[in-house]
User: Which sequence fits this backbone?
């Protein structure tokens, strides 16, 4: 290999190193601009920052000490709704059983009494299953309560305690600044 070819290769290698160095600097600058824009958004619109990110599809996050957990609140609301439906169903089952027992007491037809007893038994099984589900939901709601309280405390914590950290971690469900 001649000296001219080696010199040409050396120049190409230097250009490549310079290009890589410039691209690293540009990506670092881009990262810093993103962090700065997030920080400015937090300062300008602290009330809207959470809703902006949750509408964007993030379900939880921690940015400059600002935390939220959308999915936990949604799950808790769904559980409260399911608990209410189960309680309503238990009341309806008990009312239906009361009517079935009255009909059972007032009839003399043995075959009808047998069918009514079967229905009362099935309704009691359904009522017990509903009670079991209701108890499970109540336990889950109780275990979620400290998490929700913690998330709300973090969400509404003193906004003067902030700082810039080094890394921004982002995936489909989570945004965090570390």
Assistant:
């Amino acid at each position: 290999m001649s000296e001219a070819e080696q010199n040409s290769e050396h120049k190409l290698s230097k250009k490549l190193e310079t290009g890589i160095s410039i691209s690293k600097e540009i990506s670092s600058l881009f990262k810093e601009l993103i962090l700065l824009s997030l920080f400015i958004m937090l300062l300008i619109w602290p009330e809207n920052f959470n809703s902006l990110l949750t509408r964007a599809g993030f379900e939880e996050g921690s940015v400059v000490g600002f935390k939220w957990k959308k999915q936990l609140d949604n799950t808790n609301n769904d559980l409260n709704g399911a608990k209410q439906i189960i309680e309503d169903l238990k009341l309806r089952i008990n009312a239906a059983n009361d009517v079935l027992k009255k009909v059972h007491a007032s009839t003399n037809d043995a075959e009808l009494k047998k069918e009514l007893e079967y229905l009362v038994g099935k309704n009691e099984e359904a009522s017990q299953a509903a009670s079991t589900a209701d108890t499970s939901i109540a336990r889950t709601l109780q275990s979620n309560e400290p998490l929700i309280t913690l998330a709300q405390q973090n969400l509404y914590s003193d906004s003067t305690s902030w700082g810039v950290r080094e890394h921004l971690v982002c995936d489909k469900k989570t945004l965090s600044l570390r």
In short: Helices lie at 3-44, 46-55, 70-106, 110-155. Residues 158-173 have pLDDT under 50 and may be disordered. The chain has two domains: 3-65+157-177, 76-136. The domain at 76-136 is CATH 1.20.58 (Methane Monooxygenase Hydroxylase; Chain G, domain 1).
